[in-house]
Each structure stands twice: as C-alpha cells, then as structure tokens.
Design a protein that fits this description.
Layout: E1 10-11, E2 18-19, E3 31-37, H1 41-52, E4 57-60, E5 75-76, H2 78-85, H3 90-94, E6 98-100, E7 102-103, E8 111-112, E9 123-125, H4 128-141, E10 145-147, E11 150-157, E12 162-168, E13 190-199, H5 206-211, E14 217-231, E15 240-243, E16 247-253, E17 259-265, H6 278-289, E18 295-310, E19 315-316, E20 319-321, E21 327-328, H7 336-355, H8 362-391, H9 396-411, H10 413-424, H11 457-460, E22 467-470, E23 483-486, E24 494-498, E25 504-509, H12 513-521
Parallel strand pairs: 3-4, 3-13, 4-10, 13-20, 22-23
Antiparallel strand pairs: 1-2, 5-9, 6-9, 7-8, 11-12, 12-13, 14-17, 14-18, 15-16, 16-17, 18-21, 19-20, 22-24, 24-25
Helix pairs in contact: 1-4, 1-7, 7-8, 9-10
Length: 544
C-alpha cells in the first residue's frame, strides 16, 4: 500500500479486523486539522507543535486523566535535548534529573560524553513522567484538546478526511489502571473527523491495526525486571552496567535519591503478568554487578519482555505512525523515547506546512517522513539489538570480544564518535533532497550556530518555522514565511536554510539573490496575501 493512496478502512470493534467500506463526507465545519492518538511523549510533542502553528488538534488517550503513565523510559539524549531547546523546554527538563557525562560499558574503560559537539554533552537521567509533564503543559498552553479515557474502535479514510470512532476505555484495556468501569459495548460511540491522523499509541497501536499493517519482528528478551529503588550503598560509577554468564544488571540514578534498576536472568521465562519480588531482583544484580548495593523500598516494579519490530510503512494515505506504534526495540541504550520524540519533530513541521498551504509539493513532503525516519528506526533496532546481545554474552569468548569492543570505542576516536553520535542522535542525518549536488550539508543536523546579537540558532528555531542565516546585507526572499537571522561573525559568507527540526535544508557560499530565492521556493510557498481570494492561514505567534 503506497503512501499516496487514499485508502478507506474501518475496524470492527468486535474483531479488530479491517475491511474496505464507504463513508459519508464530513461537514468541513466539524473537521479537526489533526487527531493524534496516544498522549505519551511522542504524541504530546507532536500535538503541541501542530497547535503552536494555529492548527486545531485533538489528542486522544486511553488512560484516564488521573492515571499516571508507566515510567519505563528514563534517558534523554543530546539530540532530543536540542529539539526540546528549540521549544524552550530543555533547560527546565535538565533541572529534573541527573546528568551522566561518562559511561563505563560492561566494566571497561570509561567513555566521555563530553566529546559530543552539542550544548548538551551528556545523557539526562529523569523519569519519563517529568518529560511528559513538560510536554503536556506545553500542549495545553497551545490549545490542544486532550480527550482522556477514550479508545479508538474504528478508523476510516475518505478522500479529504479520516473518521475516528471513539468509546470510553474499559477495564480490559491493557496498561490503563483506573480505567472506566463501563461494560464493553454499552458506552455511546463518539465520532471525530480529521484532515490527518497520527497514531502514537504504542506497541499495541490500535491505529496500526486499523490500517491493517503488519508489525514484523520477534521477542529478544523475556522476563526482564524494571524497578525504581533506593540504595544504601550506591555504586562508584553513576551508571553501573554489566553482563555476567547468566545475568545482566543495570543501575542509574535519577538524581533525587531514586535509582532505576534493570535485571535479567538467562533462564528466566516468567510471563509479564507474573509477580515481581525484590529478592529476585537483588539476586540478579548480585550476579551481574557483584552487589545489590543495598537495594530497598521499591516505589514500583514491573516485569516485561522486549521485542524488535518495525512497521513497513510510516504513512498510509492521511494516517501516519510514530514512536512505538512504528518501531519497538530493547531498552538498551535508552533509545526508544528519544527516537519517538525525533519522529514527532520530523513529522510535525511537515504536516503544518501542508495544512497551512505552504508546501510546494505536499505529497512529496509528507512522503519524506517515511523516507527519512524509517531508516533511522531500522538503525536504532540494529544498534539496540547489538547492545542487548553484547549484554547477553553467554560464553567467555563472547565476553572477551565484548571487552575488546569496549576498548576499541574508548581508544579509537572515529569509532567512539560514530557510536556516541548514533546513540545520542547527534550523528543522525537524512539523505539530501533528490537532485542535490554532493557533497552537501543538506540533510545533516545543524549545530547550534552563533547568530547576531548573542542569539543561538536553536533559540531562533523557537519561532516554529524555517530559519535562514545569512551575512549582513543579504535581502530576505520576498514573501518567504521564515525567520531571517545574521551570522554573529561578519566574516562568514555562507547562506544556510535550516528546517524547523534543526536539519540543514540548503546552503551555499555567496549565492545571488535569485539563487537564494529559488532555494527557499523549493521548500516554502510565499506567504499568501490577505484578501477574499486567498487561502485561510491561521495566525499565531509562531506563524506571523
């Protein structure tokens, strides 16, 4: 099924099956611009971005408003912090956790994250709920309508809209503590029409199932234990991780006296629903780390299994998938939430450009979401899989190879920079636009460039749109809906166009005004003139 196809599916709430079915076109006055399904970090960031541009956004979440999300994610990497910085959220989030600026994989030589060329050369350890609280406040402040205790039971695509059928969540819904007690099938169905829908509803994505998309892959680790605990004897290294012959252990501090503990034993095969005992986790960490470090007073414990899966298409017509709905992998490297947030940052500006009528080629721009992010998801599966397989090394020969690999990373700069670049996200780049002459910086992450008047690039990106950086005296392309900034140094001659997600769209040295105007026009249509014949463009502080 190609991305450009306008498919029509309906999900039978009794069977979860999908089949083609016609539907009545919605009244345009009742159509929401975007419905995002899933109020985890990915969905919250995406919804907030879209609403900040003046679009109408509804966020649908199965959990009740009072139910806390599971806090499995705990690491926020440098690239994610940069994207949050472009929204004014990074510095507040940093105050909630602990910075880890070096790691010692499997007891080897320490790797310094200070080598990262970023404003945030560290990994931030903070509970997922801290990230969600910031993103939820932002989403609400931009006007997102969050509808909790709502589950999707049907999805249909028509020519111009997507229709979602919703019901209150029920007790049989997984991972929804405190959900509605209404019996299945008795609650009234609500209907929402949207111009686009994004499924950010996790590994059990109802949106993905409604599209009829497979989720190929397999389980790689079973019966892994997660817990937040106190320690009476904290480890010397801030991050303690090691794999022995039969066990794997991990400890990392949140910075407020709580530690995230992860433990796995090779012969464990208990189901996710099996009770978790603190003594079981203590025994695993003693085998893996040599000590349980006086673990006590867990505030929550959970048993889970880890899959490696990826959906083949991130876009089907007017519906998109992001985060764990599109890809899921082991927690090794702390890459899951970060990859989902980066999915959201990539998709949000593209949807906004299309819905505001500013994309020269709307379908190609929306297709580029899959083209850019699907390879990244595949890379993350491969990297996290390699880390977890190293942790599960069973034989002395495999553990020796693991130690040698860690030594290579510690001593060989290019290998270290590539590995840290992938895990941190700093090294992630996209293919340049078709037809672009190589070599080119187009598609690469833009560093936090110094701009005139003491401003930084990622501060300028808080406008929510493209940023054009030029030498003094360069004219702004006429009608271009972008932020125009000057270099801090008067000696720089390049012009750089930066996408809203902080990647280079185009650059050139000493371009003519005509070349600059043409380059901007490949990404942005001129701002429409006001008048009875022009299209309606919502106005907002981030869409002047």
């Amino acid at each position: 099924m190609t991305a450009a196809e306008n498919t029509s599916h309906v999900m039978d709430p009794a069977t979860n099956a999908t089949d083609p079915r016609s539907a009545t076109t919605a009244d345009p006055r009742t159509v929401v611009d975007v419905v995002v399904v899933g109020a985890g970090p990915t969905g919250l960031l995406l919804a907030g971005d879209l609403a900040a541009t003046g679009l109408s956004v509804t966020l649908v979440e199965r959990r009740p408003r009072t139910a806390a999300n599971l806090t499995r994610a705990f690491a926020v990497h440098a690239r994610t912090l940069e994207l949050l910085d472009a929204r004014g959220l990074a510095d507040p989030l940093v105050t909630t956790g602990r910075r880890i600026d070096r790691i010692r994989p499997f007891g080897g030589m320490p790797l310094s994250l200070q080598h990262l060329r970023s404003r945030y050369p560290f990994a931030l350890i903070t509970p997922q709920y801290e990230t969600e609280k910031l993103l939820e406040r932002r989403a609400l402040s931009t006007g997102v309508d969050i509808q909790y205790d709502s589950r999707v039971i049907g999805l249909r695509q028509e020519r111009d809209t997507v229709t979602l059928d919703l019901r209150p969540a029920t007790p049989d819904t997984p991972d929804t503590p405190g959900a509605s007690t209404a019996a299945p099938g008795t609650a009234p169905t609500r209907r929402i029409h949207a111009r686009h829908v994004v499924g950010a509803d996790g590994v059990r994505s109802t949106v993905r199932e409604a599209l009829g998309l497979p989720f190929p892959g397999r389980a790689v680790v079973r019966s892994m234990i997660l817990a937040d605990v106190r320690l009476t004897d904290p480890p010397e290294d801030a991050l303690a991780v090691n794999g022995a012959a039969d066990a794997f252990g991990f400890l990392v501090p949140f910075g407020d006296g709580w530690y995230r503990a992860i433990g796995w034993r090779r012969d464990a095969d208990a189901p996710d629903t099996a009770p978790v005992d603190l003594d079981e986790l203590r025994a695993i960490l003693r085998d893996a780390l040599g000590s349980d470090h006086g673990m006590h007073d867990p505030r929550w414990m959970s048993r889970f299994h880890s899959d490696e899966r990826q959906v083949p298409h991130y876009r089907v017509g007017r519906v998109f998938l992001a985060g764990d709905a599109a890809h899921v992998h082991s927690p090794a490297g702390g890459l899951g939430m970060n990859t989902g947030l980066q999915d959201a940052a990539n998709l949000s500006w593209k949807l906004a450009a299309v819905l505001h009528g500013r994309a020269p080629d709307p379908d190609a721009l929306l297709d580029s979401y899959h083209r850019e992010r699907h390879p990244v998801g595949r890379l993350v599966l491969r990297v996290s899989g390699s880390i977890v397989r190293a942790a599960m090394a069973a034989t002395p020969a495999h553990r020796t190879a693991r130690a040698l690999g860690a030594a290579v990373l510690a001593h060989i700069g290019p290998a270290r920079e590539r590995a840290l670049g992938i895990v941190s996200g700093i090294g992630i780049a996209y293919p340049p636009p078709p037809g672009t002459r190589r070599p080119t910086p187009a598609g690469r992450r833009a560093p936090d460039l110094a701009l005139a008047h003491g401003e930084r690039l990622y501060e300028a990106l808080r406008t929510g749109g493209f940023v054009l950086v030029t030498p003094p005296g360069t004219a702004t392309p006429p009608g271009a809906p972008l932020a125009h900034r000057r270099w801090a140094s008067g000696t720089r001659t390049a012009c750089v166009l930066v996408r809203p997600d902080g990647y280079v769209a185009w650059s050139a040295h000493r371009p003519t005004d005509a070349e600059l105007t043409a380059a901007v026009a490949t990404w942005l249509l001129p701002r429409p003139l006001p008048g009875p014949g022009g299209p309606r463009v919502p106005q907002s502080p981030q869409n002047p």
